[in-house]
Design a protein that fits this description.
heterodimer; A: alpha/beta; 3-stranded parallel β-sheet; 4 strands; 15% strand; B: mainly beta; 4-stranded mixed β-sheet; 3 helices
């Protein structure tokens, strides 16, 4: 498991990034920036980079955040670590990731229900078709809507 | 703030064809068919092809990346002025001479129209030209981070002469102009929101490069692996200006 053709984010994808497009043009929020975080192999480091991300957001007085990943499998551990670390700081957090039928969470916690599935294939699998299961504008708009609801429910803004 | 505004001017490409040297004139892009790169002995060849819009019934090796062609005209990534081409993208594909495909997890080799969903944020539109940069390796090579970083750099080197020409295009010829403010809602009492992007950072074909000198380029960039995968903050405009080159 890792980054398959249908979920991979190409350089063109980053240039047109739907989350930056949607969150960066919404009049109701102040987009502070984009934190890019990697996926270390070492388990201690996996926790550390997630925690550093959360501490950084706390320092920026971030009230809500969205996290998205370019692959699935082992990196789901990092994803849930970081999501929990951000949530534990009292920041409203929602996620976006390929799930389908192939990449459901092995372990669930209080945050997994706020992860939206970006799968678009009928079979719910890695189809090896480039672009098919990647995050699009529709996903980004859904995420913004969900985050606004979550922030309101959490009393964050 | 001084560096708060990013301007991106887009120039539409109507045709792409082969010629002796790089040229761009009134929407017509001319590129050489030979990559003219000094390749190590374990490479067999690099083949450049032009795939015309709606002519996608062609065999391709596994797609490693799709790259927009942009260049800095004024300022650094995230500020100033950028020129970009619309109507054309570069696709990097690769295999070795035994037919083994170059990819991380699942190969997209096959007939292009079956392996590429057009019109998504990360793929060309149905009316776009595709410049195919196809790397063929020999038999004796090491599947390593360096191998793939080199491949992405070769593709970047092939694009650089186009960027050099684009820097000189008269901005009045642009088909679109976009102006982005970094923080249009700062200080207006709106809730603070951030995006977190988790990216691959564990090795060959599972890597990302940040802060290249040219938008969506390779030279001058730092790999997220070499940053120990630690979080890095990008301004919205840095992200919009191609501060990340995927190597997945």
């Amino acid at each position: 498991m890792g980054v398959g053709p249908s979920t991979k984010e190409t350089t063109l994808h980053h240039f047109h990034d739907p989350l930056v497009q949607v969150f960066g043009s919404d009049p109701d929020i102040n987009l502070q920036g984009v934190i890019v975080v990697g996926t270390p192999e070492d388990n201690t480091l996996k926790h550390l980079v997630g925690k550093r991300t959360a501490k950084w957001l706390e320092g920026m007085s971030t009230q809500g955040a969205v996290i998205a990943a370019d692959g699935w499998g082992n990196s789901d551990v990092d994803f849930m670590n970081t999501m929990s670390a951000i949530g534990d700081e009292g920041i409203s957090i929602i996620g976006l990731k390929f799930i389908g039928k192939q990449a459901t969470f092995v372990v669930s916690n209080e945050y997994t229900k706020y992860v939206l599935d970006i799968n678009k294939s009928v079979q719910g699998i890695e189809t090896t078709v480039v672009g098919e299961n990647s995050l699009d504008l529709h996903d980004a708009n859904k995420a913004l809507g969900l985050l606004k609801l979550k922030m309101r429910a959490d009393g964050n803004g | 703030m001084v560096n708060d505004i990013l301007k991106i001017k887009a120039f539409n490409v109507q045709t792409v064809s082969f010629g002796d040297e790089y040229k761009f004139n009134a929407g017509h892009l001319i590129i050489p068919q030979q990559a003219n790169l000094k390749l190590p002995s374990y490479y067999d060849s690099i083949k450049i092809r032009i795939i015309r819009p709606h002519h996608h019934n062609v065999q391709v090796n596994s797609i490693m990346d799709i790259v927009p062609i942009s260049t800095k005209v004024l300022g650094e990534i995230g500020t100033g002025l950028t020129h970009t081409l619309t109507g054309v993208v570069l696709i990097i594909t690769g295999a070795d001479i035994t037919g083994k495909q170059l990819h991380d997890f699942g190969s997209s080799a096959g007939i292009l129209q079956d392996q590429l969903q057009l019109g998504t944020p990360g793929t060309p539109g149905p009316d776009d030209y595709i410049i195919s940069f196809d790397v063929m390796l020999g038999e004796k090579y090491e599947y390593s981070r360096k191998l793939f970083t080199d491949i992405f750099k070769y593709a970047d080197d092939y694009l650089q002469p186009i960027r050099k020409i684009m820097k000189m295009i008269d901005g009045r010829e642009a088909s679109e102009t976009h102006e982005y403010h970094n923080y249009p809602n700062q200080g207006k009492g709106k809730p603070n929101v951030a995006i977190v992007k988790q990216v691959s950072g564990q090795g060959a074909m599972y890597d990302n490069l940040l802060f290249p000198t040219e938008p969506s380029g390779m030279r001058g960039g730092e790999s997220i692996i070499d940053m120990d995968n630690f979080p890095v903050l990008l301004t919205p405009n840095e992200y919009r200006d191609g501060a990340i080159h995927a190597m997945v």
